[in-house]
Amino acid sequence: MKKIVFGFLIVTALFISAPKVSFANEANNPPTGIKTEGIFQVPAGANSSVISGDDLDIVEVTNDTKRQAGAIWNTDNNMMDLTKDFSSSMYMYFGDKESKAADGMAFVLQADPNKNNAFRTGEGERLGVWDSTKRGEFGLAIMNSVAIEFDTHYNDDFDMDISKKKNHIAWNFPGKESSYYDHSSLIGSSYRKLIHNDLQYPENQYLSDDKWHHFQMNWNASASTLTYQFDSLAPITIPINVADVFGTTSVYWGFTGSTDDSYAQNRIVFENVPGLVDGTVHEEAFTKADHQNVTGKKVYAGDTLTHEITTSYKDGKVNWTHPVLTKNLDANLSYVPGTLKLITPDGKEKALPDDSWNDNSLQIMLDDLGTDNNFEKIVFDVQAKQVKEDYEVTHTDVVTGSNFIAHSDEMKYTISSNSPPNLTLKDANNQVSLKDDDELILSGSWLDRDSDSVSLYYQVDNAPAVKFAENLANVPVGSKHDFSTKLKLDTGTHAVKVYAVDSDHATSNVEELTVAVDGTLTFLDIPNFSFGDLTVPTSNTTLFPVSSGSLKFSDTRIAGSGWKLSAKLKKEMTTVDGKHTIPNGLVYIGSDGSRQTLSENESVLIDSGTSGDTNEHVVDWNTNQGLALNLNPGLYKGNYAGEVEWTLEDTPNS
């Protein structure tokens, strides 16, 4: 019986004293962060510190102890210049005390007379930055400042306009009396409350939930506004009259915080600090076939896409050191081996090893970035997989350096569940040779498994695509359909692509062939030569035609093709009755005065050259040059005529 009673009592005792389940403490496990060496200093008396780690530093505003007062500011070398835009991104940790936490911390921009030695103690609800909690008392705030508070504890008077016991985020100007409301009453209490501008509440009710919360802000110098966002809450924009609030454009920035009888840890890790380094990472995706941007558009199973991730250095006091790009590829995309490369600012490309990928995760160490090396681009191809229903792919990237971390904006496109057409082209991947008066015949077939119709396109070189067949009925669906079309091409070598697009806008594979179109070499005009009425000479005489005209020919061949014009005697100069001739009568006089007799056995070279931009060539002869008649004494009188055979040859280009 004693054993039974004892056992019962133990069970009861355990039940009564069972502790509340506590959070696993994440204070030392921030999601990311940078080193902040030389960025901050702590005023004398403040309970703040920088906890240095191997890869990142943690700024601790207050530790997990009662009655702490914290402040930490930038050093003089890291002032914030309000004439320039800046941004900052960080993670904030408020402990794990939930409703028992106090009091929180505040981000502060200030031009207090005490500069980066500014430090305030007092009631916990002041968070080390706000003015007195007593009605009518002023002068205890950090002056010439703006503060964004992250309040983990509700205070009856100071937080009177807040839903009771709610953690909250708000802003105001600590040194301005207008930031407070003093209430006095002859009957009842007198109190001071802080005016909470743009009041927000954390999504999880408590800031002190053992989680790191993302906080980012951006200063727009031209608009004179500070915009901040906590986690996924709506962004808040603070209009700031710089001259009125600070009296200067060079201000200090940092954090203050406090605990009271209730307490919690307050910590920060930075992804980037204002003014030190400014950089971006940006991703785009393009179709492999024609480099069309697919952001916000549909792609299809089997499509090959080229992704470009550009990491850029914009400005800063120092270089962006040891940047590492991390990219996680969606499971519905597969990397195309052998396509990973780096492109530098001078346009040089460097192939990168495929083992930079671990499954669908890419990690690449970039070179340090600065004014001399201000960007590096990573390029690779992926292929879209088949999906059962339309699937939106969201791409984000992060580049983590030792002193700056940048995230890309989301880049999205949708993989369509529609199957694209499949197209085959006769002579694909081969070369077809044509003459310039021939037509190219494009023929093949297409097949689409699920669309109502298909349109067909061809593209010649880099010219716009031409739709040569529109809305061809896909009946019966999934069967093979033949096609054929003709087109004329200019002389030269051309890349001709053919593809199909279905009625759901899915694009087929692209088939390509090479077409070499050669031109022709053709006489256009061969003149008749007349030597007029002549008198038999008393000595050997050479006469040129009194009328000749020009010899013209057309050359539509590929530029650089060789040609040669020659002539030979087909019929000696002979009288009409055929009884008399002028032996060796026709000669060709060159531009250099050289003399060649035309004969029936051997051709005389007249001219040569290569084809160029002009298709029509004209052969003219100057005075005392060209075809001539050689006369000698003793010739018989009569009407003489002869024939010359002109030859135009296609010759190799020497």
UniProtKB/TrEMBL annotation:
Single annotated GO MF: carbohydrate binding
Alphabetically ordered keywords of this record: Lectin, Signal
Pfam families according to UniProt: Lectin_L-type_dom
Signal peptide (from-to): 1-24
Keyword flag Transport: no
Highest taxon listed in the record's lineage: Bacteria
InterPro entries: ConA-like_dom_sf, Lectin_L-type_dom, Leguminous_Lectin
PANTHER family documented for this protein: CONCANAVALIN A-LIKE LECTIN FAMILY PROTEIN, LEGUME LECTIN DOMAIN-CONTAINING PROTEIN
Full protein name: Legume lectin domain-containing protein
Classification of source organism: Bacteria, Bacillati, Bacillota, Bacilli, Bacillales
